[in-house]
Amino acid sequence: DTGVSQDPRHKITKRGQNVTFRCDPISEHNRLYWYRQTLGQGPEFLTYFQNEAQLEKSRLLSDRFSAERPKGSFSTLEIQRTEQGDSAMYLCASSLDLSVYEQYFGPGTRLTVT
Amino acid sequence: DQQVKQNSPSLSVQEGRISILNCDYTNSMFDYFLWYKKYPAEGPTFLISISSIKDKNEDGRFTVFLNKSAKHLSLHIVPSQPGDSAVYFCAASAEYNTDKLIFGTGTRLQVFP
């Protein structure tokens, strides 16, 4: 099964530390999305890439957040100087250009900031 | 501002009966709607979708109905099975920003024997 994969699945960090998450999309998908989900809420859009170009960023994505997709394949999401409010599930999804609505999600990375 | 609302946080249905999950939206620019299912420790899985030019879409046991005038959609599962127990998210997208899915808060469905 070559679905969307994310690494790590869980991350516990202390406030003020930097963390980086990785997402590997479905191989033929050229669009890649990052979402954040907190308890009791649905996923909230953070940013998305078409190939290596980052085309939109949500206002939820503060200056401490940065996402990259250097070769149009895998992507990384980095959070600098983590805060307790960053604790959430970070979800990655991918899609084809012709089926942009139908996004396929990975299992997520659960971040806990202590 | 919650543009997609799922007002029922949970629903409990007996196996074999119909499950009806509801979703309301406020943005009239939304033109495509999706339902995702989420099991614990997994990401959401695409279930079924509907374009605003239709009022019904069916896929096996799953049917989505769209009432544009009421800005309301619903997911019907018939017959419900214990494996359907999961959290169901309604999502919407606007033509001017097709890549950005707006999700509701989810409804936890429990199907009991």
Radius of gyration of chain B: 13 Å
Q: Which structural class best describes the helix and strand composition of chain A?
A: mainly beta
- The quaternary state of the protein chains shown equals heterodimer
| Fraction in beta strands of chain B | over 45%
Poorly predicted runs of 5 or more residues of chain A = none
How would a crystallographer describe the biggest sheet of chain A?
7 strands, mixed
Q: Mean pLDDT of chain A, as a whole number?
A: 92
Report the helical percentage of chain A: under 10%
From the spread of the alpha carbons, the general shape of chain B counts as globular
Look at the helices and sheets of chain B and give the structural class.
mainly beta
Q: Which two chains touch over the largest interface?
A: A-B, 24 and 24 residues
Shape of chain A: globular
Order of helices and strands of chain B: EEEEEEEEEEE
Describe the sheet with the most strands of chain B: 6 strands, mixed
Stretches with pLDDT under 50, minimum 5 residues of chain B: none
Question: Could you walk me through the main structural features you see in this protein, from its secondary elements to its overall organization?
Answer:
The complex is a heterodimer of chains A (about 110) and B (about 110). Chain A has about 110 residues and is mainly beta. In chain A, about 0% of the residues lie in helices and about 50% in strands. In chain A, a hairpin with a 2-residue loop joins strand 5 and strand 6 (about 55). Chain A is globular and about 40 Å long. The model of chain A has no long low-confidence stretch (mean pLDDT about 90). By secondary structure, chain B is mostly beta strands. Chain B has no helices and 11 strands. In chain B, strands 2, 4, 5, 9, 10 and 11 form a 6-stranded mixed beta sheet that branches. The interface of A and B includes residues 40, 42, 56, 93 and 106 of A.
